[in-house]
Structures are given as structure tokens and as C-alpha cells.
Amino acid sequence: xxxxxxxxxxxxxxxxxxxxxxxxxxxxxxxxxxxxxxxxxxxxxxxxxxxxxxxxxxxxxxxxxxxxxxxxxxxxxxxxxxxxxxxxxxxxxxxxxxxxxxxxxxxxxxxxxxxxxxxxxxxxxxxxxxxxxxxxxxxxxxxxxxxxxxxxxxxxxxxxxxxxxxxxxxxxxxxxxxxxxxxxxxxxxxxxxxxxxxxxxxxxxxxxxxxxxxxxxxxxxx
Length: 222
Prior knowledge:
Elements: H1 6-15, E1 19-23, H2 30-45, E2 49-53, E3 70-71, E4 78-83, E5 92-98, E6 101-107, E7 118-123, E8 129-133, H3 143-146, H4 149-154, E9 157-161, E10 172-175, H5 182-192, H6 199-211, H7 213-216
Parallel strand pairs: 1-2, 1-8, 2-3, 8-9, 9-10
Antiparallel strand pairs: 4-7, 5-6
């Protein structure tokens, strides 16, 4: 489902989310980085847990890591083994790894123990919302998307961009070609729904602008 109703949908998605992933394309520029880290600051001030996901050249983002958490993987997954030991006099639990096989040893235990009491579950990053900034298509995110397609399909996704080539892949698409840059787009959309930057966010936005030649250099006069 694609929803392009900007303001209400944007605010509702942010309000209803507690853990947010800001995803960036593998090829970034200071405008994208300033936008993402500035937005991360705004969302953090709203008591959201925010992580920026970027799997490109980490040297490109080094200057912006003071403003937000930036990691190169979607998150770690864990496998939990559950054992219902009610009415079972377990005294010892140990484990051993043999030839690439993990074995958990529980003793003592009745030989007629009900094996249906053993279960397992996967736990992962548990994001509520994905926000993609500055990508024209999802595959631009590289392994962040390619290794986690199922997560992208099941989570609400806000797509923010200024490029006319954007494929509008989000459940909410905020794609405005007339916006001069991503920093302006993010600031405008956040202010319209009543979210304003902290001093730290302002520093991130300004760093993005100051480091982006396309935003600070005037075109030559013909």
C-alpha cells in the first residue's frame, strides 16, 4: 500500500513508533548525512530509539558520528531455546560444541520427558519504523536492504528524497523535486508537524550544508 498523504501520516507513524531505523544509500553526500543525523537528533528528543544504518564507506560518515549512532548492519538476531522444566528436577545445565554442532546438556531428566516442552524463537532488532533518506530505490541501500528484505516488506516505510528518479517505494512517500536539498526538506516537514531541532540537530544540519559543495558554491555566470 502506498500512502502519499504527507503531514498526518508522517506524524502518526513517528508518534506510534519507539524504535526507528534511518537507512541511507551506499553512496552518500554531506546533504544526506546532515539530513539523517539532524533528523536522528529530532527523533531522539522525542524519546525514540534511533539508529542510522549505512553499509558504505565508513570514512564518509566519520565526521557525523558525534551526532547519532551509525552502524553498518541492520542488527543482530538471536536464537533462544526455551525449555519448560516444571515438575522436572533439573540440577545441571551445560553445553558443548562438537564438529560445528552446539549441544545443550540438561540433567538429570526423566527418559519420558515430553519433547514438546522444548521450543525456540528468533529475536532481532525489532524496529517499528524505517525511514529512507536520499535513495532512489531500495537496492541503493546495499546489504542493509538485500539481507533484510522481509523486514522492509512488513514495516511501515517513509521515503524522503528530492530526486525525480525516486521510485516511490515507501508506504509514505515524501518526494519533492522542488526542495533545494534534503536538509531543507527534512527541516520543513518536521517543523510542519511540530517537531523542531535541538542545538545538536542544528549542528548536524549545518555540517551537512557546509560540507556539501553543491549547496554552498554558486554556479558560474555564463
